[in-house]
């Protein structure tokens, strides 16, 4: 089995951060998913580029970086800022929506609804917790914790613990860590784990599936340093 290469530092962090901010704006405020995907793809490709990008034309040679994004990179590299980003940051509605969507459980639609109701800050949310569901309340309660990046070393330790606990529930479970961790990131915002089971399909009895899911939830909830189980999504897929 080949070992995964150690992740390297991103020499273009400022550019990828900028593109990620634009991506979040398009998703959360404009609801323009195609633009969101374009910015995310460009950010992902550039994050893997081994040397510091010196111009938009250099970036454009990479698959996933188009003319418009290359022009924005040129503007940023030559001025140190981007007019579009400056405008977004000065718009109260956009800033508030982007802030609220950083709370786990609050999506773009829910954030816009809250902003329309005059709830624009985390303090506003705390004063109106009755408008939040359980998942959102947990996201608000642990907002600062969820904002912190988890170093890869800690992610590896968490992976061993979590996957070990899953196997205790049923050795047949196949657990795969996904997301940025799987792509080799130096740090991650959270850990996404895909669980599959050879006996579970779309035809499986829901009661049997839920019994297994509840066992896993209890396992996670009993882990050291686990204060809350925030979310657990279960879906069944037909086997081929």
From TrEMBL:
Start and end residues of each Helix-hairpin-helix DNA-binding motif class domain:
57-76, 98-117
Q: Which UniProt keywords apply?
A: Coiled coil, Cytoplasm, DNA damage, DNA repair, DNA replication, DNA synthesis, DNA-binding, DNA-directed DNA polymerase, Lyase, Magnesium, Metal-binding, Methylation, Nucleotidyltransferase, Nucleus, Sodium, Transferase, Ubl conjugation
Which Gene3D superfamilies does this entry report, sorted A to Z?
5' to 3' exonuclease, C-terminal subdomain, Beta Polymerase, domain 2, DNA polymerase beta, N-terminal domain-like
> Mind telling me which InterPro entries this protein's record contains?
DNA-dir_DNA_pol_X, DNA_pol-X_BS, DNA_pol_B_palm_palm, DNA_pol_lambd_fingers_domain, DNA_pol_lamdba_lyase_dom_sf, DNA_pol_X, DNA_pol_X_beta-like, HHH_MUS81
Q: Name one GO molecular function term.
A: 5'-deoxyribose-5-phosphate lyase activity
Q: Which reaction does it catalyse?
A: a 5'-end 2'-deoxyribose-2'-deoxyribonucleotide-DNA = (2E,4S)-4-hydroxypenten-2-al-5-phosphate + a 5'-end 5'-phospho-2'-deoxyribonucleoside-DNA + H(+); DNA(n) + a 2'-deoxyribonucleoside 5'-triphosphate = DNA(n+1) + diphosphate; 2'-deoxyribonucleotide-(2'-deoxyribose 5'-phosphate)-2'-deoxyribonucleotide-DNA = a 3'-end 2'-deoxyribonucleotide-(2,3-dehydro-2,3-deoxyribose 5'-phosphate)-DNA + a 5'-end 5'-phospho-2'-deoxyribonucleoside-DNA + H(+)
Keyword GTP-binding set for record:
no
Where does the UniProt entry say this protein principally localizes?
cytoplasm
Q: Name one GO biological process term.
A: DNA replication
Q: What is its EC number?
A: 2.7.7.7
Pfam families given in the database record: DNA_pol_B_palm, DNA_pol_lambd_f, HHH_8
Q: What does this protein do?
A: DNA polymerase that functions in several pathways of DNA repair. Involved in base excision repair (BER) responsible for repair of lesions that give rise to abasic (AP) sites in DNA. Also contributes to DNA double-strand break repair by non-homologous end joining and homologous recombination. Has both template-dependent and template-independent (terminal transferase) DNA polymerase activities. Has also a 5'-deoxyribose-5-phosphate lyase (dRP lyase) activity.
Q: What is this protein called?
A: DNA polymerase
